[in-house]
Specification:
The chain has 398 residues and is α/β, with parallel strands linked by helices. Helices cover 26% and strands 29% of the residues.
Length: 398
């Protein structure tokens, strides 16, 4: 087994993105369980996706905002409106928000027709465009930040670019199973995030760039209208029921995704959700992605460091703590990997892998418990995650 060398080169040019999670308002059922999960995760914000075409959606949205108020969590809205009566629905939304328990920071409103994807030279909808709805939202909801973009994917954003004067921030989601769903392809898709971010930055015209709720699964199929049925939870494209969601693979992918968007300079991201379809726990059982997200949320407000690895087999992330450095290493392969930290000593270690996930599933504080590093080089299990408390050598200058 060859050794992967990891080194810190200084302070990163980009801060850690604000890390939040999704909440599907129309799927909000067990409010108490959702509130507990939000408190345990400690995220910076929630992305509330609500389809105003659905009966009772405003009441459900009020419940979701009440949860945000009780947990002191910032709310951002993604609102789907009818192509026929968008003005009425946005006026109804404005009336509800006037007495809501929590004031959202921003609103992206999308006409339903634009949840689908259209070829550049194809037939486009005749109804209101996203720019039309953004202008209407700004008129009826003054004082709110207005989002530009789509709640779906970069392809749809790129084909329907918002006018710069219509939005205050740009957003879209990502999914790695649009074209292929095998393990290797899902991990390889992480390599595209930097290019996507650079392109989106051009469309943002210097305004904040936020990735909305993103997971391995796809919450929407803009290319065929219907998600792929997946009752047996197999590895298939464009499904919201991906089998890896409950396993160790998702934790490694999550750490790597967050590390990639940090290097790309994304301002904020929502990863996974506090309810279906992209929940991080079920019936009190905490999945590995829960622990990864809880640990990453601890980095909020910390100084990100520029860290690199000698192999793409692992993804690395680091930030400065009061008395040292916290280093994250995710194994993106199905093979063990040995690592060596250059210029750093390890004070404590947490292993999130197949051997520890069973003991972690009922322990919300697991990811913050450090153990002695022992002797020899740390070895990361297949798709495992290591969290390391480190001290830099004096000559490193950090």
């Amino acid at each position: 087994m060859s050794t992967i060398r990891i080194a810190i080169e200084g302070t990163s040019a980009h801060p850690l993105p604000a890390l939040g999670h999704g909440l599907w308002v129309n799927h909000l059922e067990d409010v108490d369980a959702v509130q507990t999960l939000i408190e345990q995760l400690g995220g910076a914000h929630l992305e509330l996706l609500v389809d105003l075409r659905q009966p009772g959606s405003l009441e459900q949205l009020r419940d979701a905002l009440s949860v945000c108020q009780r947990t002191q969590t910032e709310a951002w809205l993604l609102v789907i409106v009818s192509d026929q009566t968008p003005e009425k629905q946005i006026r109804d939304l404005a009336r509800m928000l006037a007495t809501a328990p929590c004031v959202p920071r921003g609103i992206l409103a999308t006409p339903a027709a634009y949840l689908e994807s259209y070829q550049p030279n194809g037939q486009w909808p005749n109804g209101p465009t996203p720019d039309d709805i953004a202008a209407l939202t700004a008129e009826l909801l003054p004082g709110y930040l207005i989002g530009g973009g789509v709640p779906t994917y970069f392809t749809e954003l790129n084909r329907c670019r918002p006018a710069a004067e219509r939005f205050d921030y740009l957003t879209h989601a990502t999914s790695p199973i649009v074209h292929a769903a095998d393990d290797l392809s899902v991990m390889e898709s992480l390599q595209s995030l930097g290019d996507i971010a650079r392109s989106a930055r051009q469309l943002a015209h210097g305004k904040p760039y936020r990735l909305t709720t993103t997971a391995i699964g796809a919450w929407r199929n803009p290319y065929g209208g219907q998600l792929t049925p997946n009752p047996r939870r197999e590895r298939v494209t464009l499904s919201d029921q991906d089998p890896r969601q409950r396993g160790q693979f998702a934790a490694a992918w999550t750490v790597a995704h967050y590390a990639a968007v940090q290097r790309a300079g994304v301002d904020a991201i929502a990863l996974w959700a506090v309810n279906q379809p992209f929940a991080v726990a079920e019936s009190g059982e905490l999945w590995p992605i829960f622990h990864a997200l809880r640990g990453l949320n601890r980095g909020r407000g910390k100084t990100a460091l520029d860290i690199g690895a000698s192999s793409a087999a692992v993804s690395v992330l680091a930030w400065r703590e009061e008395k040292g450095i916290e280093v994250w290493v995710a194994n993106l392969t199905g093979r063990e990997q040995a690592i060596e930290l250059t210029g750093m000593g390890i004070d404590g270690i947490t292993r999130l892998d197949a051997d520890t996930c069973s003991s972690a599933q009922n322990d919300p504080g697991f990811i913050h418990r450090r153990f002695s590093p022992g002797y020899g080089l740390p070895v990361i299990a297949p798709y495992g995650v290591l969290v390391l408390d480190c001290q830099c050598n004096v000559e490193s200058g950090l």
